[in-house]
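Data deposition worksheet. Section B asks for the primary sequence of the deposited chain exactly as it was used as input, without tags or linkers unless they were present during the calculation. Section C holds the resulting structure in token form. Section D is free text for depositor observations; keep each observation to a single sentence. Incomplete worksheets are returned to the depositor.
Section A, Depositor: J.P.
Section B:
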Amino acid sequence: MLIDRIATTPATIDAGRFVLRPVRKSDAGLIAHYTADRRVAEGTRSIPHPLPPGAAEAYVAQAMKQGTGEDIWVMDGSASGLPEVLGEISLRRMDDGKGNRAQSQIGFWVAPAFWNTGIASEAVAALIAANPQGSKCLFAEVFQDNPGSAKVLIHNGFSYLGDAETYSVARAARVPTWTYIRKLA
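Section C:
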């Protein structure tokens, strides 16, 4: 008999200079501040630009819900003198078409002040090491005009899988992507 894992709040994960911790209500202000930056919004599928009033608060409330199929962590540097929110990283459970949920899609964004500092690479590495969803395989996609995020994935052992495209709310357009895979088991 197969027993599905009970959805719980994601655990805190040590990432060295910072921790990955569950989202909390007090994060809404910094999330709104960072995601209101056009460069951050245009680097994602779902963050609108301009950011509507109340969007960050609604996002935080959704991120805190259990059983959504997605676990979201804040990159929190407060213990080492960095800001409380450096960015976010998530794992969304994926079904392989056979009812198995042993694969996930990873996504992340980092505040522009911390670009090119290794924060994204460290967050991805910590999440892979912890493997909180027990995934056998991770997928990721990045926009083709964002080679920095592609480098983060390659640095963490992801392999190029192919080209695709997806819709970006901030760009109000379909955007070419590179898709990556990382086998864990």
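Section D:
The chain has one domain: 13-183.
The beta strands are 13-14, 19-22, 70-76, 87-94, 103-110, 137-143, 159-168, 173-183.
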